[in-house]
Design goal:
By secondary structure, the protein is an alpha/beta fold. A 5-stranded parallel beta sheet has the order 2-3-4-1-5, with helices on both faces. A 4-stranded mixed beta sheet has the order 6-7-8-9. The longest helix is centred in the last third of the chain and has 17 residues.
Length: 330
């Protein structure tokens, strides 16, 4: 029997792993984990409400907007998986179309037909009529289209615009599905400049928040730690830990002096820090472990992260750069 600190708060599934070897638990740190956070929860509720609407001759759509790395794709793929589960809380099923997967085929209609066929186990389908039959048969209520129109290449920009206008047809009586468009803020601006698109998507537009030094980020990190099979309590909610995690997860653009933290970077750094701690005989992590892991991942064991250029954090409210301030936690 392993004696654990009384205050150690692990999920039931994680606590069941605690007797495993350090290597086995280190590998478990790399498993796929979802932590609900406020803006993702609100976006999910918005999407569920949209999908629950009865099919009609006109079917509204919504947009999911967030900076690169905000967790958009991770969130919508979770929606897809949930909607196809038995006894799902979703009123109907969703199909995901990633327009970046096949850059040789920029035809949104063809890509959507392909994805409907694959999801329904009918990869041979090729026509609109076949796809529409599967929509009814499998009770597909929504199409989620990601990476639509996020390009500045002049040679393909016109084709992207044509595809963007073509998505209007999915709301019509022949398809009877709701459309969810996923993109960055610049994509939202493009949609809002088009009256036909604005009238379909302006009312329902969910935004994923930027990751800043806040109670939300601290709660996310604490929730993540509950899934890590460590036998001691990790100091992951201190101001120092959160500030360090945030600074190491910032993603600046080329020659940019402002940046936003990426959820991908946050999760990658967290899980690798927990994993490395177990592999080195530790049962908890703190900001020093975070720093060492950051150095190791970047191949900069001799570089002090304090020497990394300081980057201001982009404001959630108005996109005006401002410094991250320490959170006020009890």
């Amino acid at each position: 029997m392993i004696d654990l600190p009384h205050e150690l708060d692990l999920t039931p599934d994680t606590k069941a792993m605690i007797h495993l070897s350090a290597i086995e638990r280190a590998n478990a740190c790399a498993r796929d984990i979802w932590i609900e956070y406020p803006s993702a929860f609100l976006a999910s509720e918005c999407a569920k409400a949209l999908i629950s609407l009865p099919r009609g001759s006109y079917n509204p759509g919504m947009m999911l907007i967030g900076k690169s790395g905000a967790g958009k794709t991770r969130l919508v793929k979770r929606w897809i998986d949930q909607s196809w589960e038995a006894n799902s809380s979703w009123a109907g099923r969703l199909v995901y179309v990633d327009m970046s997967e096949n850059s040789d085929n920029l035809n949104v209609l063809k890509r959507t037909i392909e994805e409907i066929g694959k999801k329904c186990g009918r990869p041979e389908i090729r026509t609109v009529a076949q796809a529409q039959l599967l929509i009814r048969e499998f009770d597909i209520r929504g199409i989620v289209i990601d990476e639509l129109g996020e390009t500045e290449e002049p040679s393909v920009k016109r084709r992207w615009k044509a595809n963007l206008l073509a998505v209007r047809g999915f709301a019509a009586a022949s398809w009877r599905v709701n459309l969810v468009l996923v993109g960055i803020p610049a994509f939202l601006e493009v949609v809002m400049l088009s009256e036909p698109l604005r009238s379909r998507f302006a009312n329902r537009c969910a935004r994923l928040s930027y990751w800043t030094n806040s109670e939300d980020l601290a709660a996310f990190v604490l929730g993540y730690a509950r899934h890590m099979p460590m036998r001691q309590i990790s100091a992951v909610t201190t101001d120092k830990f959160i500030e360090t995690l945030l600074q190491f997860s910032l993603a600046p653009g080329l020659e940019a002096k402002t940046a936003v933290a990426s959820l991908r970077s946050i999760v990658d750094l967290l899980r690798e820090t927990f994993r490395q701690a177990l592999l080195h005989g530790k049962e908890y992590i703190d900001e020093n472990d975070l720093t060492q892991t950051y150095r190791r991942m970047g191949g900069n064991m001799g570089l002090d992260p304090k020497d990394r250029p300081k980057i201001t954090v982009l404001s959630e409210s108005d996109d005006v750069p401002k410094r991250a301030t320490p959170s006020k936690k009890a």
